[in-house]
Amino acid sequence: MYKLYQYIDGELKQNSLSDFLQVRKKDIISFAGAGGKTSTIFALANELKDMNYRVLITTTTKMFLEKEAITVQDEKIIEKALQKNKSVIAGTDLGKKMGAFDEDFLKKIINYSDVTLIEADGAQRKPFKMPRDYEPVYIENTNKIVYVVGMTSLGQEIKNLSRADIIADFLVKSLDEKLSVKDMIKILLSEKGAKKDIGKRDFYIILNQVDNEVLLQYAMEISSVLNKYGIQIALTKHKI
After folding, report:
1. How many C-alpha atoms does 50 have within 13 Å on its Cβ side?
2. What GO MF terms are annotated (predicted)?
3. Within this chain, do residues 26 and 93 fall inside the same structural domain, yes or no?
4. In this structure, are 97 and 176 located in the same domain?
5. Could you list the residue range(s) of the whole structural domain that residue 140 is in?
6. Which has fewest Cβ within 10 Å: 6, 148, 217, 234?
7. Distance of alpha carbon 81 from alpha carbon 93, whole angstroms
C-alpha cells in the first residue's frame, strides 16, 4: 500500500500525495528522476479520480504502454474518454512502450483535463539517475515538477545506476564506488542533477522505496538537510 510521509520537526507526518503536491485544477505536473515515477503517477491519478478530477496521463519521452492507453492522435476521442472515464492514458504506440505526442497536439488535449500528469524522464528501470543534456523533457507550461528517487540506490555501485558515467564524473568517483547519502544530497541540490531546468516552477522531491528501517533513517536524514534549503520533500513507504 502506498503511504506518503513528510519528516517535519523530527516527526513523520502522514499526508496524501495530492495534498503534498498541493494539486489544483489545471495543474500540469511533470515527473522526473528514477525509482518509481510511473507508480507515483498512477497513485496520484487514483487520488484525483476519487476527487472527481479528469486526469490525463501522458509522456514527453517514453513510458510503459498500458493496454487501456489511447494511441490515436484524435482530440475528440481523448475528450470523450476523459468525460467518461475521468482518467485517460494517451500517447503514441511504440510497441511495448508509449511515446510522446507532438507538443502542439499535447497542448490541445491538456485543455480537456483538470490535471495532467507527464512522465518526462527515462531511467531504464534503474533506481537513480542524473540527466543528460537533453533530459528531462519538460513542456513549457508545466507548472510543477516532481523528482522521484529510488532509495534502494543507496549503497549500490554507481555503474548500476542510470547515466552512470555522468554520476561518476559529477561526484569525482569511479564506477565501482558506491552511492552514499552525501552523494545523493549533492545531486538532489544540484542544477545539474534534480534541479536541472526547473526554472521558477514548484519543485518537489519524493524519496521512494523506503521499505526498511535503515532506508527510513537515511530518508529522514536527507529530508532534514533538504528542508533547510526550502525544498518540499516527502518519503513513501510500501512495506513498513
Report:
1. 9
2. ATP binding
3. no
4. no
5. 3-35+115-237
6. 217
7. 18
Average pLDDT, the chain: 96
- What distance in Å separates the CA atoms of residue 33 and residue 120, rounded to the nearest whole number? 9
| pTM beyond 0.70, yes or no | yes
Give tens-digit pLDDT for 163-183: 999 999 999 999 999 999 999
**Cα dihedral angle (189, 19, 202, 194), rounded to 10 degrees?**
30
Residue 124: phi and psi, rounded to 5, are 55, 35
* Grid coordinates belonging to 132: 543528460
Pairing of β 144-150 and β 55-59: unpaired
Compute CA distances 110 → 30, 32, 66, 115, 189, whole Å: 13, 19, 19, 8, 30
| Whether the Cβ atoms of residue 234 and residue 204 lie closer than 8 Å to each other | yes
Residue listed under C-alpha cell 555501485: 157
Q: Is residue 162 classed as helix, strand or coil in its secondary structure?
A: strand
For the stretch 74-126, pLDDT in tens is 999 999 999 999 999 999 999 999 999 999 999 999 999 999 999 999 888 99
Q: Could you give the number of structural domains in the chain?
A: 2
Q: How far apart are CA 193 and CA 149, in angstroms?
A: 12
* 123 lies in the same domain as 199: yes
Alpha-carbon gap, residue 167 to 145, rounded angstroms: 21
- Residue 24: all three cell numbers together: 489544483
Indicate the residue among 46, 79, 113 that finishes a domain: 113
Q: Is residue 186 part of a domain?
A: yes
